[in-house]
Amino acid sequence: MPADRQLIDAIRSGLAAAADPAKAPEMQRYMKSAMPFHGVPKPQRAAVMRAALADRTLDAATWRATVEALWHEATHREQRYAALDLLGDRRYAAHRGIELLGLYEQLIVEGAWWDHVDELAAGRLGELLDREPDATAAVLRTWAIADDSMWKRRAAIIAQVRRKDRTDRALLYDAIEPNRDDREFFIRKGIGWGLRAYAWVDPDEVERYCAAHELQPLSRREALRNLEKARAKLGGGTDG
Hints:
The protein is an all-alpha fold.
């Protein structure tokens, strides 16, 4: 099924029209991106997407083909962001089943930077864990030990940061365990983020875990950063 070329053209032209050449170089430097930016901040990009998607409905095959075309044909980084926006659009939630795991993996490996990977992990993988928990968790456990991509390992670790009390604690720990000694910044930071997010649900358990396991200093510091705030929000601790 071919992509919706009219939609792609509308998104590209909308982003180009919203471009701010004064902002583009700094955005590119901040992201350390080889791909140039238009200089379109997220709120303006969201407006472009709303206008382009208004009164338009795509079937599953066309939607996926359009996401892939936006991603692979991108000349500016905002076009890749637009691909991820379309991928996560609430109107197409019914299309996002377990069969998309291969696409998510491809985008994570090709994106290979936190701005792409973190949205795919926390957004799309977290959503799949709600819909297909066993099948998704099984794949993420293999990603957690992946030798071919540090970004797949980070994705497995942070996939649950938005799941709150739906967090699969065993999966979180299984994703962290083979990576505890890794000195890569994005792995250390990801471990801290994953634990810190769960601390809002069970701060005593996160404190116990950190006391019982050797963690890189950055991971430990990030994990424990909001414990007292979490306890206060929960009304004074948990039973762990």
